[in-house]
Model the fold of this input.
Amino acid sequence: MSDLSDTLNQPHSNWAGNYTYRAARWHRPETLEQVQALVRRGRKLKALGTRHSFNHLADTSEDLLSLEHFSHVLELNRERHTVTVGAGMRYGELCRYLHPEGYALHNLASLPHISVAGACATATHGSGDRNGNLATAVAALEMVTAEGEVVALSREHDEAFQGAIVGLGGLGVVTQLTLDILPTFEMRQAVYENLPLAQIEAHFDEITANAYSVSLFTDWRAARFNQIWFKWRITNGAPSELAPELFGATLAPGPRHPIADLSPVNCTEQLGVPGPWYERLPHFRLDYTPSSGEELQTEYFVPRQHALAAFRAVYQLREHLVPLLQISEVRTIAADDLWLSPCYRQACVAIHFTWKKNWLAVQPVLPLIEAQLAPLQARPHWAKLFTLSPTRLPALYPKLPDFQRLLQAYDPQGKFRNAFLDMYIFGLEGGVP
Done:
């Protein structure tokens, strides 16, 4: 049996090129049986999606399993309003399948090129006051556990389900997921510019409630947000004319990229032009395939009620941020019941930082941000760069002890444990590879 193993010496890096994987062997299984065989004979394994993690969350010392061949739609269930897909399916390809069939997903991240399994396992989110992160759409999953057995979990039947969805790859190799879907819909998008910080202070809840999905961009140079991307769902016929001003921000006269110096040619359609949901919810077009990103990313989630305090805290650090920052994005996410989701039982505001690719300069800035946000109970994005001490996590994640027990029940020998899980989930010394 060929499992398409790759033991060549050339390095394998993540999408951004800031992390080089240390696994001794790479495998690209094409069938469930090949995954089972690899898991049975392996001692240390992790599964890999589209490599959009910025840290060592998905790495291992021995065998990495790429799920790139698990990229097909397996079932569309019109009665239950669900779709089942291989774990390596990318959101963009899934959207192109669902829309002609008359269906949509409730939310999408800014990039449509990420894998379904990777996004759900890390609680990657999208935006919208009433929109849960991408993992909240998961109704069931199938995974290969440490003994090579295929186990299915569902929202309806399994008590451990809420702990397994944002599983950080620790329970087994997820091979397929079943997602909730809804009837397809049309949207339009417009960008407004130069929103004064005073308007945010006075009208933040109104601003984020103004559209189905809202993203605010700033470079923290001045007391304003550079751009607001409003994504409205079209519900009752033709959309009304765009207002020339909203909350003190003015309508952009042409398409915009979140980073002002870059061309908007690869961004999704703006200027209020109606179109399918999947061509408006992401910031970037599916037919634009990003190569290795010349960037680093960090993100912190704060409870919704602390949003304004968080903005003030970050703004105080602007002299440290501005020289290293490409852009910062603020989004809102609804509360959920997933144990390791940053939005576990609390609506959140996510503050995202896209840095220049200079880790030596960025690294000492992260503790400054984390110290400023610590009183606000900020939780870092699992798959992005942070320096938060593992000792802080038990206070931030009340279900962490339950998650530890869940990992030990499904993987008692630690086959899917790695340095990241040892350090941040189990609090063990020497967790940094």
Remarks:
- The first helix runs from residue 32 to 41.
- DSSP finds twelve helices and 21 strands in the chain.
- Residues 317 and 368 are 8 Å apart (CA to CA).
